[in-house]
Write the structure tokens for this entry.
Amino acid sequence: MAAAARLKRDVPDPGDRLRGWIVRALPQGRGLPAGAWERRHRGLLAILWIHVAFVPLFGITMGYGVGHSALEGMLLMAAALAAHSGRLGRRMRSTLCSVGLLTASGLLVHFSGGFIEFHFHFFVMIALLSLYVDWVPFTVAVAYVAAHHGVIGVLDPEAVYNHPDAIAQPWTWAAIHAAFVLAAGAANVFTWRISEEEALRRENVERVTEAALAKLPLDDLLSELLRRVSETVGAELASLWLTGPDGLKLRAVHGAEVPGAPPCLSLERGLHAEVVARAEPVAVAEVEPGELESELHRAAGARALAGAPLMVEGGLVGVLDVASRRPRRFSETDLGLLQLVADRIGPAIDRARLYEEEHRIASTLQRSLLPKRLPVVHGVDLAARYLPAGDAVAVGGDWYDAIELGSGRLAVVMGDVAGHGTEAASLMGQLRTAARAYATEGHSPATVATRLNSLLAGLEDGSMATLLYLELDVPSGRATLVSAGHPPPLVRRRGGAVEYLETKPAAPLGARAHTVYAEHALEIGAGSTIVLYTDGLVERPGESLDDGLDALMSRFGSAVLTTAEATCRDVLGPGEGPLRDDVAVLVVHLVDVPGRSLRGEYPSEVTAVSSARRDLERFLRTAGVPEMELQDLLLGCAEACSNAVQHAYGPEGGRFRIAAEIEAGIVRVTVSDDGTWRRFNEASGGGRGLPIMNAIVDDVDVRRTPQGTRVTLRKLVGEASDDRAA
């Protein structure tokens, strides 16, 4: 059914219709902004002050006494001075200015003996006083002239008129001037109304345009736009529907709650279908709840609707609608404004959608190029965070990595590519890959930085990046640091002392082709925590870099260092709205490892078996276990770990743990998991791990429970082993 068929032609009361027409026809006297009112008031006061000086001189010229003329001038001066007073309100000051101007007009008529026609001067006054956009001074002007022509013009026509016919027939001329007054007043009212409507329209459009041009996330942008649209046309509900394969789908709403999932509308019938078909605004003055196509409008109790097509580059992409909970006729002005708003919203939505898409692509690319997980290294607790900027153009340059180098060594890297967006994210991925390759090849930190600099300089596109490369020997707590223009790392010692690690200033990667990067030897020590970060964490608009560094040091110094994950949260601090720049943080905590025991937890992955083996090897060597027994224990532990990885969990994976301790010459190594093993089946070719473990250690204990499996290996080492052999 067409929307026009839904329009109910109600017959309002004639009195209500007349009152409504009068209200629509007359200006509302909404007032002016303070600045505009002051400018107009100063202009009218200038005209009044000219009369203050001219009227007495004119009276003297026309033969009136100096005292009489001066007295009249003082009356005008009093009105002008009062209209200047800042203590009085705007309405009082405008009224005083009106009285002064009209008095000046009457005095000119009086001093000229009627040769200056008052009505001409008065018509000019009415036009001037309508500039106040206020009924009071305008009414004063009309009443003043009506009294002058209707009372004084009849009682003393010679004081008002200079024409013999007017003096002889004052009532006739009073009627003629009354007609002129009405005509002039009506003309001014009409002009005033048009000016007021245009000003209101311009104000509403500016309000909507201001919101449409705001750089906001799409949801916030639509919420603000719909709020302003509903206020502009005086509707209780505003909603935005975007076209899709199944019709129109609700994208945003103001003034109502969405009932469940965002509803959809077919384009077969109803107001929205007609808007789409005609590609022009459509209004329905009154509609019954059962005739509403949208569940949203039914739930909100809508009784009147208006909609406008949403166009982007000549194509219709949706419908903007407003609704009222009472029957009403949306005027042509309302529909025109609604269409104008829709024209403003269309490009804004298109821009915001592209903006969000760019943000999503850059952020997704950035995250995909960062490490999926950090390595598990015995004696080190690692955690990292990456927070994308709220602005799409500020995403894509920050990165971090942690690289296990073997023999208890770990390299941690933090970098920041100059520029933003997908290009910066792509370059970041190249640098991270190259840094990992150079590090695993065994190059020193300075060599890694030098090669990365050569790589970036060779691109010849002006690309630059800052870099912080820290190579850490975990057992000894010694570290080597190289910085390429990056903010210094922050360390908190075991005793609680917090300091920035000093580095020799060096140019960022790519700035100069032959930069020499210096290495800095550091003593970190067990129990210490290091924080690497990018400049987005310490740089804030309107604040100095020193303030940001001091704030970071304060947060880090007051943090309770329980885990690296908790330290990340404390260092980042509370969120304060969307970030202006992306932020990366990497926390390295050197845990205290007891000398006679080892504890470790690893993901149920094949690569984790090597990590567990290296941790056990470092522990056994530190404890002085002889080489032959050490190798037997490493092989037995590797078999137990491999079984846990292969047999304990399904495709979803899990974690396994190792624990080792030495007591009275006996090494006890336990590998445990939380899964359910299948039993060894040697006939099927599997299950060789248990015989190997029995052959190389002194005792193997396997315990299976519904909660998991625990394999314990025991072996005599050192003197205890020699005593047994003897």
The longest helix spans residues 170-212. The radius of gyration is 43 Å.
